[in-house]
Amino acid sequence: MRAVIFLLLSSFALTAARQRYEANWESLDKRPLPTWFDKGKIGIFLHWGVFSVPSFASEWFWNCWNSGNPSCVNFIKNNYRPNWTYADFARDFTAEFYNATEWAKLFEDAGASYVVFVSKHHEGFCNWPSNVSFNWNSMAVGPRKDLVGELANAIRKHTKIHFGVYHSMFEWYNPLYMRDKANGFRTQDFVNRKALPELYELVKTYKPDVIWSDGEWEASSQYWKSPEFIAWLYNDSPVRDTVVVNDRWGNETRCKHGGFLDCTDAYNPGTLQKRKWENSFPIDSSSWGYRRTMTIDQIHSIESMLTLLARTISCGGNLLINVGPTKSGRIIPVFEERLRQFGSWMKVNGEAVYETFPWKHQNDSVNPDLWYVARKLDGKTNVYAFVLKWPAEGQLIMADLKGSPRLKLSMLGYTGKKPFTWKSRPQGGVIAALPPLSPSEIPCNWAWVLKLENTLE
Question: Domain named Alpha-L-fucosidase C-terminal: which ranges (predicted)?
Answer without folding.
Answer: 362-453
